[in-house]
Amino acid sequence: MPHEPFADLVLRGGAVHTVDPLQPGAQAAAVGAGRIVAVGSDAEMVARIGPRTRVVELRGRTVLPGFQDAHVHPMIGGLARLRCELHDSHGRETYLAIVRDYARYRPDVEWITGGGWSMDDFPGGTPRREDLDRVVPDRPVFLPNRDGHGAWVNSRALELAGVDATTPDPVDGRIERDPDGTPTGTLHEGAMHLVERLVPPDSQADLEAALVLAQGYLHSLGITSWQEAWLTPDMRAAYRAVAARGELTARVVGALWWDRSRGLEQVDELLAARAEGHIGRFRPTSVKIMQDGVLENHTGALLTPYLDLDGRATDNRGLSFVEPKLLRQAVTRLDFEGFQVHVHAIGDRATREALDAFEAARAANGPTDGRHHIAHIQLIHPSDLPRFAELNVTANAQPLWACHEAQMDELTIPFLGPERATWQYPFGSLLRAGARLAMGSDWSVSSPNPLVEMEVAVNRVAPDSRDVVPPLLPREAVSLEDAMRAFTMGSAYVQHHDDTTGSLTPGKLADLIVLDRNVFDRAAGPIGDAQVVATWIEGEAVFEDGAFDG
User: Fold this and answer.
1) 3-class SS at 445?
2) C-alpha–C-alpha distance, residues 89 and 11, integer Å
3) Residues 64-75 pLDDT 10s
4) Is 276 exposed, middle or buried (0-12, 13-18, 19+ CB in 10 A)?
5) Residue 154 and residue 165 in contact, taking contact as beta carbons nearer than 8 Å
6) pTM for this structure?
7) What does each C-alpha distance from 252 to 216, 229, 231, 247, 278 come to in angstroms?
8) Do 372 and 438 form a contact (C-beta atoms < 8 A)?
9) How far apart are CA 249 and CA 256, in angstroms?
10) How far is CA 41 from CA 32, 38, 63, 463, in A?
11) pLDDT one-digit tens code per residue, 438-447
């Protein structure tokens, strides 16, 4: 019998969770020429060890396939870390202190930008310009909130933009106002552009630096592949430049941006952008359509109106950013042209409009391999749950939001009412209806840590609220196995990478990670407390913790 070739890397003495139903668990794995060559027992790996083989003694630690984030904004997250970063902080006074210090130490910066504030830190979710005026009176300030659907600005920014009591709301947004019509300093959705258009554009060097910074951070969390959920031409150029230098180690699918102010004439431009072709591990083959806003500022599109604080129906059903007829035409054309379509849908009406569009595309084009997906899926009417499986549309979930927190309890549930509030984040119902589930973080909106996100998917409680608050709709929880599959094979399917990644199957690429514990062992502690200690892509280490002794 011929001798098995020696491996480049052997990991042994631990728990190997393959996410492969044909061989779900093992003790050890071997890597050669960038691929998984064997999975099995420690004894079976002995023959794979040669004089140049690196042997990692796991000592009970866990090996998993690399995580894949199906909806994330790394370049925005990286830029935030280079600017006035608020994402990891909370409270009005804390934000103001950060802004004050940032402005003080950067007197040459024309605009104060960055952002990441949380709506639940302000009454009604709307901060005021006067607070920013106190800390930065002489320069314009533009700070998007953590979900990117609103911005906090100071009086100087409003003045430069010419936004005052006489300025009408744009069709796709709203200016928050005092009773006399004076802008308060919060701009929702399309109203942000009234000021944002004046902010100096990011330089190519800044975008590239942001991408490299973000990539290192994501690798440290075990993320080996992602879908960039908003790709502007400048961002695309930055990805291509980093990839051309061989510095893009992650596998990235870029979602080209659908301009909601235009129509089908932009398809030719999207085709031209895709025709630039993939470079290295970057492929711009998806198109992102934002169909509505968010529930907290009442721009998420609902089938029936929002309620007021007294529980009475208002006349506001939110915003559909793309007219439904045009959405059906756009999705049908994009599907015909071989694009994947990635739709942002928060409200139940936006989700239905997206499903209707995918149904129209299938009727016109027949089944395709577009692997279309709807991201966020916060509110789904029960009658629409089976349509995901029927139309082969992947449910792209951001599980960290599926819990009780101030934003949910104070800014969402009261305005939906008791029945509708029970339709939120129906991950369990989607799986029971036969849907395919992928998962992503939407970072920089929320943490990109898949282990924390999986804990919420399983428990429906935020890690900082363990044993303090009840779970949100526990019947919609999923098992850890299902959550793990969504962050590996589910997202790999969306990326068209499932034939080469997503599980530790011999022959697949060696994109794998090591955790400091076995998250499937309840005695090892909460899922979200686990740490990634090493990440490999095609057998090459892209992250190793300083204390990793493998």
Assistant:
1) coil
2) 38
3) 999 999 999 999
4) exposed
5) no
6) 0.89
7) 14, 10, 11, 12, 10
8) no
9) 20
10) 17, 10, 13, 34
11) 999 999 888 9
